[in-house]
Amino acid sequence: MTAQQTRAWKIGQLAAETGLTVRALHHYDHLSVLRPSARTSAGYRLYGESDVEWLYQVLALRRSVLMR
Fold first, then answer.
1. In this structure, what DSSP letter does residue 38 have?
2. If pLDDT is split at 50, 70 and 90, which confidence band does 68 have?
3. Domain coordinates of the chain in residue numbers?
4. Which residues contact 29 (CB under 8 A, 6 or more apart)?
5. What is the band of 6 on the pLDDT scale with cuts at 50, 70, 90?
6. Check whether domain 8-66 has CATH 3.40.640.10, yes or no
7. What is the pLDDT of residues 48-66, one digit of tens each?
8. Exposed (0-12), middle (13-18) or buried (19+): which is 55, by Cβ within 10 Å?
């Protein structure tokens, strides 16, 4: 995470705030659609502000494709 990014979300927090499941976020990580910008010393994923912005872009694109 860069110095400009002030907030970090653990995967459970991000899932709760976006309405996605932890499993879906793991799947996005596996597919390299959304990679966490950092990890804790214990290996937990940490998502920064730019990651969250990217996730919302991905969700918007996904929604537009599904509406076709």
1. E
2. confident
3. 8-66
4. 35, 36, 45
5. confident
6. no
7. 999 999 999 999 999 898 8
8. buried
Distance CA 23, CA 47 (A): 15
Query: Rounded to 10 degrees, what is the CA torsion of 9, 20, 17, 13?
Result: -30
Q: Distance between CA atoms of 11 and 44, rounded to whole angstroms?
A: 8
Helix, strand, or coil (residue 26): helix
**Which tokens hold the place of 2?**
């860069």
For residue 44, what are its two tokens?
């937990």
**Residue 5 pLDDT more than 80?**
no
